[in-house]
Amino acid sequence: MIDGRAARWRRRVRDIGAAAAAGGAPVTYGLIALCGAVFLVSPLSGFNPSYGPADALLAAQAGYFERWGVIPAELLDGSAHAVLTPLTALFVHGSWLHLLGNLLFLYVFGAMTEERMGRAEFLFFYLFCGYFALVSYAVAHAGSDQTLVGASGAISAVLGAFLYLFPRARVTSLFPFLFFLPLRFPAWIVLVFWFVLQWLAARDAGSGPGVAYLAHVAGFAAGFLYAWGRYRGGVRVKAPATATEGESQP
């Protein structure tokens, strides 16, 4: 028998999931649309002929990253432009795979998190934690001149907040060592597993080109701690729920 509190939690997560599924997450969907639009008009999508042929296109791509991405060595110099780049970099992606992977995670976990936090707070949370994640990476690699772009830090924060707010919500996940079979697990198992993978990868990663795992770790921790500090006195949805589905790997 389910006690009254568990029943209320179950109804609450269903209401949150239903509201999010009914289009009640305009900030999440707006961020997805903005990231997609920015990528389509950039020299990285291949859809804008104004950037010219091969050599000119490569030069345009390099200049695009330098203008809008985070360069740790320049960020810590404190120029006005460099200080803004952790915000602009959140909307810049290096490839179709980078873009689609991030937007899938934002779509899956962002809507319910936004519904729980509210529109304005979720937008502030996303930008603040994303900024923090990129700055954390820059501080740890202060001498690097490699450009850092992408929404991964902010989306990792969404995952961290989701873990705190909906620890027993069930998500559909694909694990390579289980032959990519779609299996449903509690969110806390999937997200803790994901975080451990990012942590282990961050320990072995250098400051050169590649995935900024440290930004993922910093963003996830910031998101979890934000939700813990902001909502620890309120209602956490602990009852099992089936309101959301996602993949286990970014």
UniProtKB/TrEMBL annotation:
In its UniProt record, which GO terms are filed under biological process?
proteolysis
Q: Which sequence ranges are marked TM in the entry?
A: 20-41, 90-110, 122-140, 146-166, 178-199, 211-228
Pfam families in the record: Rhomboid
Recorded hits in InterPro entries, A to Z, give:
Peptidase_S54_rhomboid_dom, Rhomboid-like_sf
> Where found in the cell?
Membrane
Topology in the lipid bilayer: Multi-pass membrane protein
Q: Which GO terms describe its molecular function?
A: serine-type endopeptidase activity
Domain named Peptidase S54 rhomboid: residues: 86-230
GO cellular component terms?
A: membrane
Listed A to Z, the keywords are: Cell inner membrane, Cell membrane, Hydrolase, Membrane, Protease, Transmembrane, Transmembrane helix
Q: What is its main location?
A: membrane
Q: Does the keyword Cytoplasm apply?
A: no
Q: What is this protein called?
A: Rhomboid family intramembrane serine protease
